[in-house]
């Protein structure tokens, strides 16, 4: 005997199948033939179908009927004519309908094709892609400005850059503004905001921000990079060919750009990260000649030794050594310590 759960599942499945089968009978023109409704054949073109539809629509228009029952019947027939006309005037729907007439046994496939066309979006996919790309570019551009403003705010609060900007502003006479200037009276807050704006402007002109904090540029947008992708690939292939030819085959010494590339590659830095370093730190890396494998190996060994010394001098390591000295370290257990 079936349990209540299985009985409920069977009833639900029967209802779903009944709904599907009932819906299939209503697709296209239902039990009627669209060609017969419009009094045309499958070989007639769209112009003839349009002409026949207009003729039948005039004949069966509800306004031409006299009695209420005749008007209701005319409205129903006109609705069928409209559905048939819509199907036969659309090339894709007409092709699907003809296929259904030729293959009536493929019931579920006809059901799928009918509702796929009926409820599929009518907007062009290219327009959707263009809108999405535009929105992404706008968000990306706003993000660039946000990062740039955050970097300027940080530099404006940094004592070193702030003092340098104030020195330049004082030399140019930009800070010699009194509370009464040209007939205008400024409050203390307005003078402070004006000074901050002057310092930020000087920092933006004197400090070369690079990497993710660089000044916003349309060239960095996704759409521009996508358009310039073929040119970028061409430049990369040309660079790779020159590298192999000059440095692998001809064994020429590295130029300055090649030294920078090898240095940041050995350090595991991207171009944006390398550009984000200050000039003194970049010069320090270049003076160590890290593009040479021997020099880089010596650098890594020196860094490892430095980290070992720092770890040995840390408070955590000192506490651990004190614990080992006082307790003798963690107790070592052997199989003899356990009773089986």
UniProtKB/TrEMBL annotation:
One of its GO terms (cellular component) is endoplasmic reticulum membrane. One of its GO terms (biological process) is protein folding. It is a multi-pass membrane protein. It is found in: Membrane. Pfam families: DnaJ (PF00226). InterPro entries: DnaJ_domain, DNAJC25-like, J_dom_sf. Keywords: Chaperone, Membrane, Transmembrane, Transmembrane helix. The keyword Transmembrane helix applies. PANTHER family: DNAJ HOMOLOG SUBFAMILY C MEMBER 25. Belongs to the DNAJC25 family. This is DnaJ homolog subfamily C member 25. It comes from Clonorchis sinensis. The lineage of its organism: Eukaryota, Metazoa, Spiralia, Lophotrochozoa, Platyhelminthes.
């Amino acid at each position: 005997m079936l349990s209540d759960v299985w009985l409920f599942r069977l009833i639900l499945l029967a209802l779903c199948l009944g709904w599907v089968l009932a819906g299939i009978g209503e697709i296209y023109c239902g039990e009627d033939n669209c060609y017969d409704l419009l009094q045309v054949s499958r070989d007639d073109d769209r112009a003839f179908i349009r002409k026949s539809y207009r003729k039948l629509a005039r004949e069966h228009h509800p306004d031409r009927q006299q009695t209420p029952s005749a008007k209701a019947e005319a409205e129903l027939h006109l609705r069928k004519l409209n559905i048939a006309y819509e199907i036969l005037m659309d090339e894709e729907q007409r092709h699907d309908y003809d296929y259904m007439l030729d293959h009536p046994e493929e019931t579920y496939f006809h059901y799928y094709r009918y509702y796929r066309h009926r409820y599929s979006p009518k907007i062009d996919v290219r327009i959707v892609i263009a809108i999405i790309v535009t929105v992404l570019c706008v968000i990306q551009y706003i993000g660039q400005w946000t990062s740039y403003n955050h970097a300027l705010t940080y530099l404006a609060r940094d004592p070193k850059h702030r003092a340098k900007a104030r020195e330049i502003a004082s030399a140019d006479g930009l800070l010699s503004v009194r509370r009464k200037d040209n007939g205008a009276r400024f409050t203390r807050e307005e003078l402070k905001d004006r000074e901050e704006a002057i310092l930020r402007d000087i920092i933006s002109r004197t400090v070369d921000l690079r990497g993710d904090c660089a000044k916003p540029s349309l060239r960095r947008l996704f759409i521009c990079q996508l358009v310039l992708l073929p040119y970028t690939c061409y430049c990369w292939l040309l660079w790779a060919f020159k590298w192999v030819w000059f440095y692998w085959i001809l064994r020429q010494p590295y130029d300055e750009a090649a030294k920078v590339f090898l240095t940041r590659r050995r350090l595991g830095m991207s171009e944006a990260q390398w550009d984000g370093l200050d000039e003194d730190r970049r010069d320090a890396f270049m003076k160590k000649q890290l593009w040479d494998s021997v020099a880089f190996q010596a650098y890594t060994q020196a860094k490892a030794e430095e980290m070992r010394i720092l770890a040995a001098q840390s408070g955590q390591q000192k506490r651990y050594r004190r614990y080992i000295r006082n307790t003798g370290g963690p107790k070592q257990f052997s199989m003899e310590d356990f009773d089986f």
